[in-house]
Amino acid sequence: MSTSTLASIIQHEPELRGQTVVVIGGSAGIGFETARRARAEGAKVILTARNSERLKRAAAEIDPISTAAFDATDPMALERFFGDLPVIDHVMVTAGRPYYGRLVEMDLTKIRDLVGQHLVQALYVARNAMNRVRPGGTLIFMGGTGARRPAVGLSVASAMTAALPALTASLAVEIAPVRVNLIAAGFVDTPLSAELLGDQLEKRRNQLRTTLPIGRVVGPADVAALAVHIMTNTALTGATYDIDGGQQFVAA
């Protein structure tokens, strides 16, 4: 191998140089790591989040070109945000949280709003992004693999898990040449996971370390690496990409 060839391998060319990435829900966890990874790959980043203080702390580390604090489930706020954007290259949506619970314990009013917000949010983002994302750019949503296996307490999560891949595929056809993809994650070791599990977090981590085929817990940086790959590979659209360390294949 020549010296010049070796040098070209070592000196990795940033894959997102000159591109602009919007991360909705970028103040922590997967969104934050995706923004960090995009910046490392040469992208300009626009960060949004609901909590202005957490957004400010994230921005201090990421150095985005701009930030916006708003509720991503609010259609009018989304419309205003996208209306002020220049042409961009990619949108990553990580805002939102799962709902788990037994049928007899559910607040059905809350569930109705939550399910509607999650699906309608995706539609609103797509409708606003289609005129802002350049041809060949991508819109990436987040879903999950954990609720594919039926279980008590997973009825709402299972419904969302089934709906998002179908929505993604249809949107990829409808708003082409903008590409639309879905990342389906299992347990990811994020602040949201810590909030949901509380004092059971370390027990869950240990369980996954001993049962997952990869022998470790999936982290937000793993998901961020996949997100950036989807952004840069322009042959990818309409698909769901699993990243759960094999969780759906074992009793984990």
Q: What does this protein look like?
A:
The chain starts with a helix and ends in a 9-residue tail after the last strand. The longest helix has 22 residues, at 108-129. α4 (75-83) packs parallel to α5. With 252 residues, the chain is of the alpha/beta class. Helices cover 45% and strands 17% of the residues. Strands 3-2-1-4-5-6-7 form a seven-stranded parallel sheet, sandwiched between helices. The protein has a single domain, classed as NAD(P)-binding Rossmann-like Domain (Rossmann fold). The radius of gyration is 18 Å and the shape is globular.
Write the H/E string, N to C. HEHEHEHEHEHEHHHE
Overall mean confidence score, pLDDT: 88
How many domains make up the 3D coordinates? Answer: 1
The CATH level-2 architecture is identified as 3-Layer(aba) Sandwich
The SS-based structural class is alpha/beta
Give the overall shape, derived from the CA principal axes.
globular
How many angstroms separate the termini? 45 Å
In the CATH hierarchy, what is the class? Alpha Beta
